[in-house]
Write a structure and sequence with these properties.
The protein is an alpha+beta fold. The protein folds into two domains: 7-59, 2,3-Dihydroxybiphenyl 1,2-Dioxygenase, domain 1 (Roll), CATH 3.10.180; 83-175, 2-Layer Sandwich (Signal recognition particle alu RNA binding heterodimer, srp9/1), CATH 3.30.720.110. It contains four helices and ten strands; from the N terminus they run βαββββββαβαββα. Helix 3 (120-133) packs across helix 4 (155-171). The chain is globular, with a radius of gyration of 18 Å.
Length: 175
Amino acid sequence: MAISGIHHATLIVDDEQRASWFYGQVLGLKAKPRPRFRFPGLFYFCGKRQELHLIVAAKPLTREEDLFIRINDASEITRNFIHRHVALVVTDFRRTKKRLAENHVDILFDADKLGDEPDSLTVNLIEGWTRMYGAPPFFCRDPFGNLLEIIPPGAEDARVRAIKELSRVATGKPK
C-alpha cells in the first residue's frame, strides 16, 4: 500500500454565503460541482489535483483553544499560527497578502513585519520554512476561524531542492 497524494482537505464553516465570498472571491478558488449530499457545503479546485471541501455547520463555531508545544529546552509555548491548518500555495504572494488586507483579514504571522529582534523560535521557524518553501509563509484565519498557511510560489521547486540536499547529506556525497 502506498499513499499517492492528498485529494482534499475539509474545513468547517458556519455561513455558506460568507464562505463562498471568502474562498471564491477573496482567495479566487474555482468552485467545483458538489454531489447532492443531504447537508450543505462547497467544493473548490485547489491547484491541479487537490480540492478544498467546506462543510457548513448548523451552529456557529467556537474558537479552538490554544495549542501548547514543548520546545527543545522543555518549556511550553503557544503561537496563534501553530495549530491544525491547511497550507495553500499561491501564484502571487504579495497580491494575495494585499487582497486579504483589502478584505480586512488579519495576518497572524508575517515575517516581513517582525520587530528588530525576533525570538529564537521564530528565527528557527523562518529558517525552516525558507529551506522548505524558499521563503517564509504567512498565516491568517478565514472568517470561521480556520487557520490558513499561505505559501509563496516556487515552494515545490524549493521542496525538490531540499529533498536532493537531504539525500546528498545522508549519502555523504560532496556538493
